[in-house]
Specification:
Largest sheet: 4 strands, mixed
Strand content: 15-25%
Distance between the termini: 24 Å
């Protein structure tokens, strides 16, 4: 599960009990949450590099329909091409099939809380959650 807010990005891998968050990059486009939603998905894909045995398939949930469409079609406006290229490079390297699916915001509570740094809520909902910080992939920032 991934999410972005005006404060940061959040990643939640429930099967691994892995939660991660970061502040929004300092150099970033203005007035577009879509960029950050797509960057959150790209960041989740980059987590593959930290897994001892990356899976052959990956399903990522996001509450942003534009992000789902972008990763489904692998087409984007020039501003977002660096995100797609970064994600595809990792997928090809690890031979992973990706599906990005839409999830209603009401079912994306953990990733949303992580993106807003509401860590108390995360721990209340998932007491065993381990919360880490991360940096989004630099090559995705253009």
């Amino acid at each position: 599960y991934t999410d972005a807010s005006s404060e940061g990005l959040g990643l939640w891998f429930p099967d691994e009990n892995f939660a991660a968050q970061c502040e929004l990059p300092k150099t970033r486009p203005r007035d577009t949450i879509f960029f950050f939603e797509a960057l959150a998905v790209c960041s989740a894909i980059h987590v593959l590099g930290n897994m001892p045995t990356p899976p052959h398939r990956m399903l990522i949930y996001t509450d942003n329909a534009n992000t789902v469409a972008m990763f489904d079609s692998l087409r984007a406006k020039p501003l977002y091409n660096s995100i797609l290229m970064s994600a595809v490079d990792v997928l090809l390297h690890f031979h992973v099939d990706l599906r990005v699916a839409h999830v209603p915001g009401a079912h994306n509570v953990i990733a949303d809380a992580l993106s807003r740094f509401h860590n108390e809520l995360v721990v209340d909902l998932v007491p065993s959650a381990q919360i880490f910080t991360f940096e989004p992939p630099r090559d995705a920032l253009g």
